[in-house]
Each structure stands twice: as structure tokens, then as C-alpha cells.
Amino acid sequence: MSGLKQYFKDSWEGIWTVLVGMKITFKHLFVPNVTIQYPSVRVPMPERVRNRLYVNMDDCIGCDQCSRACPVSCISIDTVKSLPSEDLGVTSNGKKKALWVTKFDIDFAKCCYCQLCVFPCPTECIYMTDVYEFSEYERGKLLYNFSTLTPEQAAEKKANLEKFNAEKEALKAAAAAEAAAKPKIEKPQDKTE
Question: What is the chain's Cα-based Rg?
Fold first, then answer.
């Protein structure tokens, strides 16, 4: 009889341990799941999140404030002064544009997402977006070019400015030569003794 008693006791302990182990499973069996089916469903990002930078080139005046504020030097900007005959327009907050932005690159492989480049911008053209998925297999693809000018257009703007400056210097030299060629009129000296 004791063997039968031990058999039922062992059977009950086996069933009991399975029930204790399945307690959590049964508890969550009737609770709605919280699994998000990423990437088709995405978690909404909180306000003021710091992710990828974006530059609105229509508002950029090429002041280089963002590049100077960057602690890791991931922003590089090149500008060319516009000619007096060119009208570049104004930004959305009314600031007149005077420079062609020939290069505006951000290297996201270096960026530490500190947002220090956003605050000094006088036209608020650079800002953080809610895009956080931009991984690449090659590091070179993390260099983003925001300039709206093609390399050919940028070279043309530089050449036009150099030509304009050369013509301006030639006019200055001609005016200086003309002024040197004119006879000097001597002023009579005062004879006060």
C-alpha cells in the first residue's frame, strides 16, 4: 500500500510543479499582447527627440554658425559670395541671402546627436527630425550632401566670382594709374613768420 501511496504523491507533485510553472503562461494567455510588429508598426517618438538632422537649404544663408558649434566637426560648409547682379532672395523669416552655399555636408558617422548645431542657426534652417533608422553597410553612405547646387554649378559660381573680382581689381589698377598720371597741383606754402 505504501508503494501506491508514494505513486500518487509523486504524480501529484509532478502535476503541481507543471501548474506552478505554467502559472505565468496562463496569466498572460488572456491579456492583450504588447508586441509591436516592427517595422510595419512603429512606436511614436516623443517630442524633442534627437535623431537625424535635416537642413532646409531654402532658408540657409551659409553663415557657418552650425559648423562652428559642432563639437565633433561633422558639418562642412563652403560658400561663394553672390555677384551684385544676382538676387538670391530671402529666407522664410525675411533675412536676405548673400552667399551661394556650394557645399553643405553632414557626416552622420561622426555626429553625436547633441543638437548643439541647431540652436545658433539664425534662420532655423537646421533641425532634428524623427527619423532614426538610417543605418548603412558602408560608412561612406553616411555622408549626406544637402547643397542644392551640383558640382558644376558650384564651380561656375566660383569662376564667376573670380572673374568679377579680377575685373574689379583691373578697374582699381586703371583708376590708380590714371590718378598717378595726372599732374599734381602744388599748394602754395604759407609764409607766416
Answer: 36
Write the DSSP symbol of residue 142. Answer: G
List, in order, residues 6 or more apart from 53 with CB less than 8 Å away: 106, 108, 111, 117, 118, 126, 127, 128, 129
Give pLDDT < 70 ranges for the chain: 1, 183-193
Continuous segment of H or E residues that includes residue 28: helix 23-29
| Angle at alpha carbon of residue 23, lines to 17 and 29, rounded to 5° | 140
Predicted local confidence at residue 187, as pLDDT: 62
Cα dihedral across residues 134, 138, 144, 150: positive or negative: negative
For residue 30, give Cα distances in angstroms to 15, 61, 85, 91, 160.
Answer: 22, 59, 74, 57, 73
Q: What is the pLDDT of residue 53?
A: 92
What dotted CATH number matches 53-152?
A: 3.30.70.3270
Give whole-number Cα distances, 32 to 19, 36, 61, 152, in Å: 22, 12, 52, 58
User: What's the DSSP call for residue 75?
Assistant: E
Residue spans per domain, the chain: 53-152
Task: Find all residues with CB under 8 Å of 72, minimum gap 6, and list them.
Answer: 110, 111, 112
CA distances, 182 to each of 41, 61, 176, 177, 189 (Å): 82, 44, 10, 9, 21
Residue with cell 537649404: 57
Instruction: Please list the helix, strand and coil fractions of the chain in percent, rounded to the nearest 5, in that order.
Output: 35, 15, 50
Per-residue confidence (pLDDT) for residue 152, from 0 to 100: 92
